[in-house]
Each structure stands twice: as structure tokens, then as C-alpha cells.
Amino acid sequence: MELYITISSKQKLCLVFRYFKNHVSRTLVSGDISWRCVKKTCSSYVKTNSSKTKLTEIKDSHTHDPETEESLNLLDVQGRCKRKACEDLTLRPSKIIRTELSI
Ligand SMILES: [Zn+2]
């Protein structure tokens, strides 16, 4: 999948595009959303429409390597586990992790 939205372990929206992670930078006057690469030293960004379904602009000049599929999957699982743990404090962490990994 080239473009998708996930939730980071810090419970922030995270847009993954071509294995690069981006976080919300700002919402534009037009309603589009500007996303910046998570690496502070990198000036790449993408813009999407307000519903985050379509890219409207791409500045793709990353100064670093993309994430691997494994690390992105891990990020996704971490985010989901943390969310579940916050929602239901009676669930044991090991159970949450097992449930998430079996999806
Ligand atoms: Zn970058």
C-alpha cells in the first residue's frame, strides 16, 4: 500500500507514504492537510485533501532511508496496543499484544 494513515505510539496521526512517515504539520486554508516528514532534518512534505484520501502535492526529497515494512508494522501494532490498554485498564498487556498480533 503506497499511502495510508496510522496512529503512532504517541497517539498522533501518522501518514505513511512510500515507506516514509509524516506527521500533521498544519491544516491549510483550503482545508487540505500539510504533512511533514517525521525526521526534523528532512524537508520533505506531502499534502492531502481534508479527508486524507488523496494526495494533492508531493515534495519527495528525503535525505534518509525509508522505513522497512517490519518497522512500520511494529509501529502500527504498538499504536493499537497502547490505545487498547488505555481504553480497558483491566486487560493484561500480554493479552492485548497476542490479540493484535493475530490479526
Ligand atoms: Zn524524510
Give a verbal description of the structure.
The chain has 103 residues and is α+β, with helices and mostly antiparallel strands. It is 27% helix and 31% strand. The protein is built from two helices and six strands; from the N terminus they run ββββββαα. Strands 1-2-3-4-5-6 form a six-stranded antiparallel beta sheet, covered by helices on one side. β2 (13-17) and β3 form a beta hairpin. α1 crosses α2 (93-101). The chain is globular. The two termini are 17 Å apart. The model has no long low-confidence stretch (mean pLDDT 91). Bound molecules: zinc ion (ZN).
Please tag this protein with its features.
2 helices; six-stranded antiparallel sheet; binds zinc ion; 31% strand; zinc
Q: End-to-end distance, in Å?
A: 17 Å
**Bound small molecules, deduplicated:** zinc ion
Structural class: alpha+beta
Portion in strands = 25-35%
Question: Which spans of ≥5 residues are poorly predicted at pLDDT below 50?
Answer: none
Question: What composes the largest sheet?
Answer: 6 strands, antiparallel
What's the order of the H and E elements?
A: EEEEEEHH
Strands, helices and their partners?
Elements: E1 3-7, E2 13-17, E3 20-27, E4 33-37, E5 45-48, E6 55-59, H1 69-87, H2 93-101
Helix pairs in contact: 1-2
The structure holds zinc ion (ZN).
Zinc ion (ZN) binds at residues 20, 37, 39, 42, 44, 62, 64.
